[in-house]
Every structure is written in C-alpha cells, then in structure tokens.
Amino acid sequence: MDSRIIDLRTGTDLVTDVTRDVLEFCRGRGDGLCHLFVPHATAGLALIETGSGTEPDLAGAVDRLLPREDVYRHRHGSLGHGRDHVLPAFIAPSLTLPVLGGAPALGTWQSVVVVDSNVDNRDRKLRLSFLAG
C-alpha cells in the first residue's frame, strides 16, 4: 500500500475541497482503492456537489443538528467547541473510493471535501492511501 500525507488549512469555511489532491494522488495508479483519512477529532470527509450552494446548505444543516451554542459538556476552546468534537460521529473521518484506470470513480457532480468547523486549530492533515487491485 502506498500512502501520502497532505497538509491542509481548514476552519475558515466548513468545507475544504480536496478533489484535485485525490485526482493527482490516483493518477497513473491503475485499478484499486483510494482510502482517505483525516486523523483529527474534529474533522470528517464527505462526497458532495460543490459550487452549487451545497456548502452553505451543509453548514446550515450542521448548525441545526449541532448548534454552536454552549450546550456541550466538552467546553475547552472557543464557544461551541464541543460541537466540533461531535461532528465526526455524523461525518466520518474516513472515506474509500474505487479507482479505475488511475482515476477515482466519482459521480458527475461529486467532489471530495473535508468538513471541519474547528476554528481553534486550522492546520490539518489528510492521509491518502492506495491499495492496488
């Protein structure tokens, strides 16, 4: 298995598009699986359509489901930081994609995104791993 870590800066926006990084990592690898993992307690990975209003829709859904108010037992950090730690239970920190002919088999409108609402720590890592078929 081949693996690479990519450094990211998140937290300004809830959604950080990493599709290009995934495409680049898979290029020329043939068939197999690409596994993505964010090793952080406040981040997850998702497949969504970007650039069509989905990002603010997702942010609104997260705000409704996990309000930023001070309602959490986990209380260190900025207001509502407990919500950041609950987020990965709903948006998983890992994702596996089929790769065919050196390209992830994404749907027409699918993009790979990191979802992270933690404004206290914006430096993130994304591990990409490829398992040949």
TrEMBL record:
InterPro entries: UPF0047_YjbQ-like (IPR001602), YjbQ-like_sf (IPR035917). It comes from the Bacteria. Signal peptide: none annotated. PANTHER family: UNCHARACTERIZED PROTEIN YJBQ-RELATED, UPF0047 PROTEIN C4A8.02C. Belongs to the UPF0047 family. This is Secondary thiamine-phosphate synthase enzyme. It comes from Jiangella alba. The lineage of its organism: Bacteria, Bacillati, Actinomycetota, Actinomycetes, Jiangellales.
